[in-house]
């Protein structure tokens, strides 16, 4: 019984570790995408602004 509990506990810890890793990677990707989008938007604004002048 005790061994079964410790095994389950270890599995839970492992899952938590994996989940944390995935969340970190996901957040980083979202940040990169957001930066890329804002960069492209700013670039577009600059280009359209220059074409107006």
What spatial form do the alpha-carbon principal axes imply?
A: rod-shaped
Helix content: over 70%
Strand residue content: under 5%
Oligomeric state of the chains? single chain
Task: Work out the helix count.
Answer: 1
Describe the sheet with the most strands.
none
Mean pLDDT: 89
Report the radius of gyration as a whole number of Å.
23 Å
- Tally of structural domains: 1
Which spans have pLDDT < 50 for at least 5 consecutive residues? Answer: none
Coarse structural class: mainly alpha
Number of distinct beta strands: 0
H/E topology pattern: H
Distance between the termini: 78 Å
Structure write-up:
- It is an enzyme of class 2 (transferase).
- One of its GO terms (molecular function) is aminomethyltransferase activity.
- Keywords: Transferase.
- This is Glycine cleavage system H protein.
- Its EC number is 2.1.2.10.
- By secondary structure, this protein is mostly helical.
- The protein has one domain (1-53).
- Helices cover 96% and strands 0% of the residues.
- The protein is built from 1 helix and no strands.
- The chain has one helix spanning 2-52.
- The longest helix has 51 residues, at 2-52.
- It starts with a helix and ends with a helix.
Summary tags:
EC 2.1.2.10; Glycine cleavage system H protein; aminomethyltransferase activity; 53 residues; transferase
Architecture blueprint of SSEs:
Blueprint: H1 2-52
Short description:
One of its GO terms (molecular function) is aminomethyltransferase activity. By secondary structure, the protein is an all-alpha fold.
């Amino acid at each position: 019984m005790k061994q079964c509990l410790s095994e389950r506990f270890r599995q839970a810890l492992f899952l938590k570790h994996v989940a944390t890793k995935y969340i970190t990677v996901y957040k980083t990707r979202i940040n990169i995408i957001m930066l890329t989008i804002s960069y492209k938007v700013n670039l577009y604004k600059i280009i359209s602004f220059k074409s107006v002048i």
